[in-house]
Amino acid sequence: MITKTETIYVLPPAGLIIQCRKPQLTATTPEQLPIDTLKLKSALRECAQYADDYLKWRKDKDKPG
Question: How remote is the C-alpha of 59 from its chain's centroid?
């Protein structure tokens, strides 16, 4: 008897996972650092939301019937 094993990849829907925005940092003086810090915090918050949305979607899909 021969057993054949297949690998099936199930991917999340297109558009659910997207690249995170990476703001350009332009500060050249200490006085400008708060502006770049705000840019980074905003981008991190936005990116974290993508991950949270995906994890919620995955949890919802893993629920039995």
Answer: 15
Q: Which amino acid is at 45?
A: R
**Residue 17 near residue 47 (C-beta atoms within 8 A):** no
Place of tokens 């400008």: 32
> Nearest to residue 43, comparing CAs of 7, 19, 16, 14?
19
Structure-block tokens of residue 61: 């899909």
Chain segment 7-65, per-residue pLDDT in tens: 998 888 888 788 899 999 999 999 999 999 999 999 999 999 988 988 898 888 887 76
Q: How many residues does the chain have?
A: 65
Tokens of 23: 């703001």
What Rg do the C-alpha atoms of the chain give, in angstroms?
Answer: 20
